[in-house]
Design brief:
Largest sheet: none
Number of domains: 1
Order of helices and strands: HHHHH
Helix content: over 70%
Distance between the termini: 23 Å
Number of strands: 0
Structural class: mainly alpha
């Protein structure tokens, strides 16, 4: 049960990071910070993140950088952009570049940090 609750916790952190991405982007471009506006920006990427996470067998791989972390990142950006366009929003090249870089930093950074913490805690419990 611990593994299931752990990966769900990490998924919630990843979803919060996507929400931070949406809020900061809307704030930078002065689009307003209404709940509906934030959700319109974040929802395609949040849905894509959930799908990508489930595809990569999260119970065992929630903190791996390669290949699961990279796959989650690329699928989140790719499917998120596709969902944006499908729902009538735009996906201009500068937005794609910024989203790719920021989500990469957030999603890969989280995995780097939690992977290090988990390895350190495993060393302490086995010592």
């Amino acid at each position: 049960m611990m593994k299931h609750s752990r990966w769900l916790g990490f998924l919630l952190i990843d979803l919060a990071l996507v929400l931070i991405f949406a809020v900061s982007g809307r704030q930078q471009h002065e689009h307003g910070l209404s709940v509906l506006g934030i959700l319109q920006t974040a929802a395609p990427f949040m849905a894509a993140l959930v799908i990508a996470t489930l595809i990569t067998v999260p119970v065992e791989t929630h903190s791996r950088l390669w290949p699961q972390g990279v796959l989650v990142w690329i699928l989140t950006v790719g499917m998120g952009m596709a969902l944006r366009v499908w729902t009538g929003a735009t996906a201009e090249v500068p937005f794609i570049v910024v989203a790719t870089l920021v989500l990469g930093l957030f999603l890969m950074g989280r995995r780097l940090i939690t992977g290090r913490i988990l390895r350190r805690s495993m060393r302490h419990t086995s010592a």
